[in-house]
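ok trying again, last paste got cut off:
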Amino acid sequence: MTKHVAIGYQGAPGAFSHQAAIAFADQLEVKARFVSCQSFNDVFQGVLSGSTEYGAVPLENSSIGAITANYDLLWTSDTKMIAEYFLPVHHHLIGFEGVSAESIKAVYSHPAALDQCRGLFHNRPGLSARVHWDTSGAVVFVKEAADKTQAAIAGELAAQEHGMSIIERNVEDYSHNSTRFALITGANTVQPVPTTPYKVSCAVELEHKSGTLAGVLNSLAAVGGNLTKIESRPIGETPWHYRFFMDLEIVSGLEPLEAALKIYSKNFKVLGRYKPSLPVKV
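nice, full thing came through this time. structure:
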């Protein structure tokens, strides 16, 4: 019997994270069992406990920016990132078959999805936005409420999974809306080292003095690191100090990169190394 690896994701079946988990299974070329989790923390805990081999978590959206909770979890947990995937995100108004968009009074979805569809609510002042824990879960909520004046914002897979209808397609603000996902696994899990050039995600805490960030960036450039992203996050236990999360494309091994980070950083962590992925055309 073929073993199915378990991949955790946040949301109900049909959520965008579920779609990303399916894409990661294809990347890994494995048969997978997909595990729905209530929260991002639950996805990480599943990997740490060994109940799932992998987890699919969103890192950033092209419209609203970073999913900061997952950057913090990458820093604090004993996990590593081994792949990335750019998922096109098309939001649809989902409800009961035969219902018109004009008759909808309340729309439920995850806060991030609602934030990506501001234009819908701006153009229809009578439409009420209601927060739910998940996009696909919002479809389940609307179905169970059986109120035809309610709808959800979610993806097409969510409508298919739960037997609901798409009332209006593509209600997102930007047609090229997409989300970058990370595939995580346990930090001690043995994975093949990607061939160079490859991508590295890392985080550093710097001395609070002039020139430290510039020094780090210059050192990274000196070892051939091409910075593709930098994001600052506050260090909760040290108010008004910041941790910097960075993605780099590098052509050498990790040793020159780690040596460069040690020069200026108080603390650093390599979050993962993996083959670069390209955004999917939407």
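cool. The longest strand covers residues 79-88. Residues 16-28 form the longest helix (13 residues).
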